[in-house]
Amino acid sequence: MSFWLDSLGPIGKRPALPGDRDADVAIAGGGYTGLWTAYHLAKARPGLRVVVLEAEYCGFGASGRNGGWASGLFPVSEQKLTRKYGAPAAAAMHAALEGAVDEVGRTAAAEGIDCDYAKGGVISLIRTPGQLRRGRGQAGFLDADAARAVCDATGVLGGLYSAHCAALHPAKLVRGLAETVERLGVTVHEGTRALRIASGEVVTDHGTIRAGTVVRALEAYTARLPGHHRDLAPIYSLMIATEPLPPEVWERIGLRRRETFTDERRMIIYGQRTADDRLAFGGRGAPYHFGSRVRPDFDRVPAVFGKLRHTLGELFGIEVPVAYRWGGPLGIPRDWMPSVGLRDGLAWAGGYVGDGVAASNLAGRTLADLILGRESELTGLPWVDHRSRRWEPEPVRWLGINGGLRGTALLDALDR
Question: What is the model's pTM?
Answer without folding.
Answer: 0.96
